[in-house]
Amino acid sequence: MRYLTAGESHGPQLTTIIEGMPAGMPLVAEDINKELSRRQKGYGRGRRMQIEKDQVQITSGVRHGQTLGSPIALVVENNDWKHWTGIMGQEPLDDQSSEEVKRKISRPRPGHADLNGAIKYGHRDMRNVLERSSARETTVRVAAGAAAKKLLSLLGIELVAHVVEIGGVKAEKQAFASLEQLKEVTEASPVRCFDPDAGTKMMAAIDDAKQNGDSIGGVVEVIAEGMPAGVGSYVQYDRKLDGKLAAAIMSINAFKGVEIGIGFEAARRPGSQVHDEIAWEEERGYYRKTNRLGGLEGGMTTGMPIVVRGVMKPIPTLYKPLMSVDIDSKEPFAASIERSDACAVPAAAVVAESVVAWELASAIVDQFYADRFDTLKASIEEQRRNARDF
Asked: Which of 44, 215, 322, 375 has its CA 20 to 30 A from that of 297?
């Protein structure tokens, strides 16, 4: 499976085209819209979330509620486009003294793609960079992830993302009875945190940052249950599933770190407290007594829950802007301010869940016959039986 996205933050729409989904899989707009709605929630979000109510249009690849096996095109319109038609329009500008030209951006913001992108593509107006490098693009990555989540769910694989840290406030590790309980509790939390006391402190930290014109980051965790053992491969570096998951997390805007299982903690423990002992039961088959390696060994799934964490830096657009240099005059300036969030970690958890879902679904489609959903489902069930009886 693969997908491409297109569109600018204040352009008319965002688009993604998905290729490789099996035919005969149920898929309707509501499957995607509920995920888009989740992405727009979260304590600390900015005014853009009040302007946009993201809704998808499925414009190809689905007929009468089922996938066709042909490319699926998903479109999300930007409601704010009507206020940006002059600035972001496709037609050439006739008047070089127009308001659109006057709103040219020549002051790069520290922490953004502005300066590097301008140097790379030769843009003297850095709006050409920031419009595409904006995290608004994750809207349609969540849409693609929603289609992947639907596929996984129909194969008995479920995912939940939640927040474990914001602004230095860490959630206490608490046991949950099931992924369903984790999802229920965290979806009701404004910061998507399972620990209510930590959640309250996280909101206070976000309030403080906002009041100070600053921003804060955090850590999100994605857990997936139900993946059959043996998905991925050890035979080549680019077929290792943990490598693909790490790359997916790091591709999210503002993410600067990734862990699988206990992650960096493994560097501080002896091997006896890192590796997971193997056991076997007749009904269950092989399993691990612990899950410190996060459901992945040798680039392949073990059948245990997959656990991936991502580190999101504070959003670099600040209301007390850092200093920068105007690329035209070379004079120091306070960096340009665009609409921003004090904290987008709760929303980023949804994006992380989506990209993990995509990589898991893609790995399954790559490994098993997947032109038809019914044969794919039968193959996954057979794989589970083979792993249990091995």
From this structure: 375
Residue 74, both tokens: 């998903």
Contacts of 40 by beta carbon, 8 Å cutoff, 6+ apart: 49, 52, 53, 54, 347
Model pLDDT for residues 29-46, shown as the tens digit of each residue: 999 999 999 999 888 776
39 has binding-site annotation: yes
Residue 48 counted as an annotated binding residue: no
106 assigned binding-site residue: no
pTM score: 0.95
DSSP, res 263: G
Instruction: Return all residues near 204 (Cβ < 8 A) that are at least 6 apart.
Output: none
Return the H-helix or E-strand segment holding 347.
Answer: helix 345-367
Cα–Cα distance, 323 to 251 (Å, whole number): 26
Q: Is 381 helix (H, G, I), strand (E, B) or coil?
A: helix
How far apart are alpha carbons 242 and 253 in whole angstroms?
20
What domains appear along the chain, each with residue ranges and CATH number? Answer: 2-389 (3.60.150.10)
- What does the mean pLDDT of the chain come to? 93
**pLDDT beyond 90 at 312:** yes
Instruction: For residue 293, name the pLDDT band (cuts at 50, 70, 90).
Output: very high
What pLDDT score was predicted for residue 93?
78
d(C-alpha 327, C-alpha 334), whole Å: 13
Q: Is 134 annotated as a binding residue?
A: yes
To the question of whether residue 314 is assigned a binding role by annotation, the answer is: yes
Whether 284 has a binding-site annotation, put simply, is: no
The pair of three-digit structure tokens given for residue 121, joined into one six-digit string = 């593509």
Q: Is 107 annotated as a binding residue?
A: no
CB 140 within 8 A of CB 7: yes
Residues 143/200, Cβ–Cβ less than 8 Å: no
Determine whether the annotation assigns residue 79 to a binding site. Answer: no
Q: Is 315 annotated as a binding residue?
A: yes
Closest to 312 measured CA to CA, from 255, 353, 247: 255
Q: Is 375 annotated as a binding residue?
A: no
Residue 51 is predicted with a pLDDT of 64
Write the CA distances from 237 to 240, 298, 299, 360, integer angstroms: 6, 10, 8, 17
Q: For 149-192, give the DSSP string.
A: HHHHHHTT-EEEEEEEEETTEE------S-HHHHHHHHHHSTT-
324 is in an annotated binding site: no
